[in-house]
Amino acid sequence: MAMSFGIHIGHMGGPLEEMRRLWKFADSAGFDWFSVSDHFQESPPRGGEIDCFEAISTLTAAAVETKRVRLGALVYCVAYRNPGLHAKSLTTIDHLSHGRVDCGLGAGWHEVEAKAYGYDWPRIGVREDMLEEYAQIMRMLFDTESRRSNFSGKHFRLENAPNNPKPLQPRVPIWIGGRGEKRTLRAAAKYADGWNAPYIGPDEWIAKVQVLDRWCETEARDPKTIARTVNLGFYLGADAKGAARGEQVFQSHFGKDPRDGFLRGTPKETLAMLTRFRDAGCARVNIAFREGPYDWDALHAFAEIVFPVFGVRRPS
């Protein structure tokens, strides 16, 4: 099975020119995806003093400065935006990008951030209910055959709502991100075109896929119709010295994190892990960054060493 690669910014702290360089690199180097995170302050939390750019406006800029890559977010928090406004925003980006936008949704987790900005933060079960309603509304508003949409839920409502112009794409892909087995993966089985898990290793990812497959059986959904992807934190170096620097950065970001979904060492040392993901049916691995500056030598080395192994063609 083929596997492609994407780039994700897990915390959009800039500097802005580094971020712009990153999505241009993704577009020109053979990656097929570029995504942003949906936060208003740094993630993981480190005091709230670090720069953080906003997701929709950042993705809009990426849309006008790229030509190839799919453009998404992993994931937009359903507690932060009215779904009607969100559908209008992504439809606009779809037009600006000539039909390259994806819609990623999640129940959210950053309670400190939500409270800082005055958002209601109900318990996770309620946010999962919101996620299911939100996904249905986005599908309605993206539907190119439906001129008006109506929805009456507990958390969101549409009343004869138009979304004109419609997206350029016949079907805007909806992604649901997260690892929750009882609600999130069931929502993915019911409503999503794709599922993404952040920062977990192959063993846990495979276990989550098996849960997703069981929910697909429950929901009478063909599991092959749901793309499965993973985000892996990028802390590589082009050589041993670069790997040591990357390890220092990892310790400052995630040193005590029990998850093992991080690329550490050199690109060659990642091949076994990446192969396990591919063999398990992973459609795409997104290498995930936080604030810059980025290690450009490591990025180029990753593309040069890893892409040929997985049959990724780099644009001429």
Features:
single chain; 316 residues; alpha/beta; ten-stranded parallel beta sheet; 10 helices; 12 strands
Short description:
By secondary structure, this protein is α/β, with parallel strands linked by helices. The chain has helices spanning 16-29, 55-64, 83-96, 111-116, 124-142, 184-191, 202-218, 240-254, 271-279, 296-309, and strands at residues 4-9, 33-36, 70-73, 76-77, 103-106, 149-152, 157-161, 174-177, 194-198, 227-236, 262-265, 284-289. It is built from ten helices and twelve strands.
Please identify which CATH superfamily we are dealing with. Luciferase-like domain
Shape category = globular
Alpha-carbon distance between the two ends: 24 Å
Strand content: 15-25%
CATH class: Alpha Beta
Counted up, domains total 1
What is the percent of helical residues?
25-40%
CATH architecture: Alpha-Beta Barrel
- DSSP, total strands: 12
By DSSP (H or I, 4+ residues per run), the number of helices equals 10
Catalogue the unreliable spans: none
Structural class: alpha/beta
Q: How can the largest sheet be summarized?
A: 10 strands, parallel
Nearest-integer average pLDDT:
96
Order of SSEs: EHEHEEHEHHEEEHEHEHEHEH
